[in-house]
Design goal:
Layout: E1 26-32, H1 39-49, E2 54-59, H2 66-72, E3 76-79, H3 85-95, E4 100-103, H4 115-124, E5 129-136, H5 144-161, E6 173-176, H6 177-181, H7 192-202, E7 207-214, H8 227-245, H9 247-276, H10 282-322
Helix pairs in contact: 5-8, 7-8, 8-9, 9-10
């Protein structure tokens, strides 16, 4: 794999923060919070493997020298005052204009050498997202809690929204301009990866996944992901997305819950009435009736909101289609594709 293979994609010259190039405009987006230990190596590695890309580091109120080190390494450094990765990604997507976006964490755990292969795959197959599925190269790369949580949450999203990705929480993704500029980023923290995935699954966008090496953090660097609290936030995000994107299923489950409760309480009232001809448990009868009404209203809410959600989904789809696609960045027949065989990277 050659580091400059991306230059084989033909387009008009681009002048600006990306320099002058015949290649598609590629932006490497790196959200950072206290990554002074790793950021210089991350910027340098991506500059080596994507030499024509613009590298943007967005500092999120770091208390160390992350911003200064990134600027010295050659990145365009900007800041986002609202704390949280989701807030940073939303700002980056709004500010940076490019044809292809490489979103990656600044902790040095992701493999920059895989970036050309991911970009090539996106362009060659006219995709909107290529997810870098993490393959640990050492036992320390994935903590047991993170591994279990990732598998559980990935399985939950696959069960509800579709089984198209195996690594829901990967922070390494290559995205098209059409995807980025039509993505309504609402998350504030690490749940942003969940939103990215569900957005693609709900609109049935062309996406794919490639395996990439995943390393342990360099010495002196600490993870910002809190296994329990962030896991709970991600689970809450999934629940919210189910309610918003699949309201019929959500409220049908709520309706079934109250229906079962109503029948459990009401069965004793009915048995008494059949035996004596009298309603002997009036409070229980009132409770069962109320629960049945709630079950009915929940089902009606689900039906109404399902119609509203379909309209919202159509609007999002139309907004997505209003943006230019990747056809103008098609892979020339003369270009030599990088190998994507058994090895993860070359």
């Amino acid at each position: 794999m050659t580091d400059r293979m991306i230059a084989s994609f033909s387009r008009g010259p681009v002048v600006g923060e990306f320099g002058t190039s015949e290649a598609p405009r590629i932006a490497v987006l790196i959200p950072c919070y206290n990554e002074a230990v790793a950021i210089a190596a991350v910027v340098g590695d991506f500059a080596t493997h994507l030499p024509d890309a613009g590298i943007f580091v967005y500092d999120n109120n770091s208390t160390d020298a992350t911003a200064q080190i990134a600027a010295a390494a050659g990145a365009v450094v900007r800041s986002e005052m609202l704390q949280g990765k989701g807030n940073v990604v939303r700002r980056m997507f709004a500010d940076v204009d490019a044809d292809i976006y490489v979103l990656v964490d600044g902790d040095g755990t992701y493999d920059a050498a895989s970036a050309p292969r991911l970009v090539w795959h996106l362009l060659e197959h006219s995709l909107d997202m290529v997810n870098g599925s993490r393959q640990a190269v050492s036992s320390e790369a994935f903590r047991p809690g993170h591994r279990f949580g990732n598998r559980a949450l990935t399985g939950l999203v696959a069960w509800i929204f579709g089984n198209r990705l195996t690594d829901l929480l990967s922070g390494y993704r290559v995205l098209s301009r059409r995807f980025v500029k039509s993505f309504p980023a609402l998350a504030s923290g690490f749940e942003i990866e969940t939103e990215l995935t569900v957005h693609a699954l709900e609109l049935r966008l062309p996406i794919d996944e490639l395996a990439t090496p995943y390393r342990d953090r360099p010495g002196g660097s600490t993870s910002k992901l809190r296994t329990v609290s962030d896991g709970v936030r991600i689970f809450r995000t999934i629940t919210r997305l189910v309610k918003e994107e699949r309201p019929f299923h959500f409220f049908a489950a709520v309706s079934l819950f109250f229906l079962i409760l109503s029948l459990a309480f009401g069965s004793r009232v009915i048995v008494d009435y059949l035996l004596t001809g009298l309603v002997l448990r009036i409070p229980m009868a009132v409770l069962a009736t109320g629960l049945m009404i709630i079950a009915f209203l929940s089902m009606v809410c689900g039906l109404i909101l399902d119609t509203v959600t379909r309209g919202r989904r159509e609007i999002k789809r139309l907004h997505y289609l209003a943006l230019p696609g990747q056809t103008r960045l098609a892979v020339p027949k003369s270009a030599n594709a990088p190998r994507s065989g058994a090895r993860l990277a070359e």
